Amino acid sequence: MKGHNPDTRMEPWRTSIVDAGPAHIRVRGHDVLDLMKEATFTDLIFLLHHNRLPSIDERRLFDAILIGVADHGAGAPSCAAARLAASGNRQSLSAAVAAGVLTIGDEHGGAGSGCMDLIADGVGRVRRDGIPPATAAGVLVDEAIASGSRLPGFGHRVHSNEDPRVAVLFGLAERSGLAGDGVRFARALEDALAERVAPIPLNIDGALAAILVDLGFPSMVGKLLFIVGRVAGLSAEVLEEYTREKPMRITIPVTYDGVAARVRQEQE
Amino acid sequence: MKGHNPDTRMEPWRTSIVDAGPAHIRVRGHDVLDLMKEATFTDLIFLLHHNRLPSIDERRLFDAILIGVADHGAGAPSCAAARLAASGNRQSLSAAVAAGVLTIGDEHGGAGSGCMDLIADGVGRVRRDGIPPATAAGVLVDEAIASGSRLPGFGHRVHSNEDPRVAVLFGLAERSGLAGDGVRFARALEDALAERVAPIPLNIDGALAAILVDLGFPSMVGKLLFIVGRVAGLSAEVLEEYTREKPMRITIPVTYDGVAARVRQEQE
Amino acid sequence: MKGHNPDTRMEPWRTSIVDAGPAHIRVRGHDVLDLMKEATFTDLIFLLHHNRLPSIDERRLFDAILIGVADHGAGAPSCAAARLAASGNRQSLSAAVAAGVLTIGDEHGGAGSGCMDLIADGVGRVRRDGIPPATAAGVLVDEAIASGSRLPGFGHRVHSNEDPRVAVLFGLAERSGLAGDGVRFARALEDALAERVAPIPLNIDGALAAILVDLGFPSMVGKLLFIVGRVAGLSAEVLEEYTREKPMRITIPVTYDGVAARVRQEQE
Amino acid sequence: MKGHNPDTRMEPWRTSIVDAGPAHIRVRGHDVLDLMKEATFTDLIFLLHHNRLPSIDERRLFDAILIGVADHGAGAPSCAAARLAASGNRQSLSAAVAAGVLTIGDEHGGAGSGCMDLIADGVGRVRRDGIPPATAAGVLVDEAIASGSRLPGFGHRVHSNEDPRVAVLFGLAERSGLAGDGVRFARALEDALAERVAPIPLNIDGALAAILVDLGFPSMVGKLLFIVGRVAGLSAEVLEEYTREKPMRITIPVTYDGVAARVRQEQE
């Protein structure tokens, strides 16, 4: 009955990230004291997720991504949920930040992961089948049309014509020579979409997806990096809610459209 | 260097709640199979928090409390946060329910704990100092006025004249003979408040607090029981959001009132 | 620029669950005051998710399900996460309960949803194709074998021979006449699995799935009902952690197996 | 019945942090596109919480703080809770990160806020009463002894002799001239504690608290900055759990020490 004997003690978990003891803390082999003196927080984020420190150009791209996703206004779903939690629960700053994090998924902030899978799929077809990116992109868009699904990383509720952050990210990637097949394929998808459906531009999630593919990250990082960046904004939103607003200020107006009040039969 | 040696295995945790093995599951000594056949979920909630099953009258009070707090409309902070999370993150039902739970604190849904402490304080003064409840209640209200704090468990945003659930709860407690010093002192506080400040009636949190004091629960249960009841409502709200509404339907309107756009000096 | 004008006020949300105003609270048309006096919390849970009150037999099944999933010991992932959060964060009971809820997904506690989809698929094939349940079950098991996936709702880490809660649930369903195609098909899957792979018995998630299919619930309820029941246990686990244990008592032992400490080149 | 009329539309929320529209996103007046090109993520974190960009030395201190708190091993409560959630719930990366965040409170990672209040209290006494820091520190330590409370920001489970990150942080603050009354008073508290109780050195939370006081931040930032930094580590821990470990690998061993199994009386 292995593992369920109440006398069993638990074996240690294993990890390759941090080695911490009374006299040392090392992150992927790097002494954290050295990192505190010389590295940037962005370097550390890269190191935690990639097992090495970034180059100057890679760090610039990470900084641009993290800044680009950190906050998009108090009314974005994640920020609004954090503020609602801060408004109702004044006991715990971490509860409010966590409520904001929980709002992040494929629909809000997390499309980067799906877009990385899509781009990796397309780049794989180009390499494997020897077809041009435009052809592969067209196939993927046709498949999405056939299955009635939307392409993750394209379109934005607010920036419907163009997400201005995309040009900045891709410009940085191009100038540093880090833009590769991922960025090229993302643009091919944008063209195929415009041609076959409508001009639905890349959004920030799609742009970070293309760059993370070119930097060699697994697709989960598309979502995780959004979370890491957005938490900076959630923290500031929660601080503002605590310091500027009264508890319980928020009531969402609701219209009831369910069954009518039931008249009770009198019981004898 | 006890506890930090990477070779150390973890000792088992201890618990007095559930004993589970391959052939048995017992909750506070009761076979869960028997409970499944004969008890109600409300019995189990009582048992989990009190180490014995409730009487019929105690069960009625618990049912009334749990029903009374389960849902107060989609716009209540906890329900609204759950819906925001469901709207942005369609990956995880538990994430949406959890976002709703996180909104619960002293200001929203959790005042029962503070009110239980307040009532226990008052009842203690009555017993210890041999003063009438009205006197002790007056002292506590004066102290709250002096410190500029509000009495937890009194007043409601929607039910400003009277929270109709209070009379039901207290009626059930009176009729079954379970109402005791807690319920009496809660009413004394209501009178003292009306006399010294304004008519600010008990709300559902205050009523459940009074009853939980009389049933012998620790004050943390004031908040926990609200959470257990409200999760039933959060679950239904999340289900409705998933089944009736599109992802990302929610945008909270925002007005910016911060510093103006900064004009950048051109750099040479 | 619809919806993004900062002057726009937000339209009310719609809901068919609760209608609350200053003088009334109705859940799906039922006056909450009546429910508090006469219904059980389990009735309300059924009503919130199904738009009508349960029969006596349906209520019994719901009670049995909610009791069966409420707690499985302090070391279950959801309970352990709630205790870890309670150990590190003593500010917020709701934060600890929420951390437990977040641990629930397809792998822990949430297999009921996947199993409901599976059973509905199988029952649909039986009806549509006019094949016996055993044949349809065999096809589904073969498909799972071919795709290398596991059947949700079968097998349990602790109850590897048999989950004793299953017989109780199915017994109640049989005796009340509520067991239907869902329960029958779940048993057919169990047989097909035993024949083709190994005896991997239904677990509690699988049993509740079969019953919820027969009661006419959508598959999301498989996960949600587990959450509603488990929160009762999480609440008790958190209460025990606060009252019996010191903060920060928990350290998980870890072995580092990553890259070795990096020796720094001295810089001139 | 203001605010509860179902026809009421919600007024916009106000914010001074982000102004976002179709063609612009500004953070505290700064164009986010400029920030993406030129600023670091650490600059942005400072800006979000302080309404201006940091100096080079302030940025160095923020980087050192964020790096210092980002991760302390997979077994730290926040990291362990994130891994438990990732192990049980494979649907949602954000759920796992959020479970880790929820573990952060006064006891784990959040002592910085309490320590900032303590230091601000002490520095205020020094200025107001014209007493030396050592005297004020002694008074505060005596008060803590009298009330049986511990000083937040002192002592560490692993680094019991000395937290090596403290010297690095204070060294950076001293060399840049940013160390002020806050850092001095934290050291005075350490001395008073050693003299009156035992050598209980400052930990990383205490060191960041002293520095944040000197940089002019409100005390909530002590906790929030820990959260922002730790989320980078939580993200990496969750990624490792998903990529290296199987779902549901974690079972915490438990010993039951509650009431014995109850023998049921047979019912006629």
Based on the model shown, name its key terms:
homotetramer; 268 residues; mainly alpha; 56% helix
Query: Main sheet of chain A?
Result: 3 strands, antiparallel
The overall average pLDDT of chain A, rounded, is 93
Structural class of chain A: mainly alpha
In total, the number of strands of chain A is 5
Cα Rg of chain A: 23 Å
Helix content of chain A: 55-70%
| Quaternary structure | homotetramer
Given the structure, what is the number of helices of chain A?
11
State the largest interface. Answer: A-D, 101 and 101 residues
What does this structure look like?
The structure is a homotetramer of 268-residue chains. Chain A is mainly α and 268 residues long. Helix content of chain A is 56%, strand content 6%. Chain A contains 11 helices and 5 strands, in the order E-E-E-E-H-H-H-H-H-H-H-H-H-H-H-E. The first copy, chain A, has helices spanning 32-38, 41-50, 56-69, 77-88, 93-102, 111-129, 133-147, 164-175, 181-196, 204-214, 220-244, and strands at 13-15, 18-21, 24-27, 30-31, 254-256. A 3-stranded antiparallel sheet of chain A has the order 2-3-4. In chain A, strand 2 (18-21) and strand 3 (24-27) form a beta hairpin. In chain A, helix 5 crosses helix 11 (220-244) and helix 8 packs parallel to helix 10. The radius of gyration of chain A is 23 Å and the shape is globular. Residues 1-6 of chain A have low confidence and may be disordered. Strand 1 (13-15) of chain A pairs parallel with strand 5 of chain C, so a sheet runs across the interface.
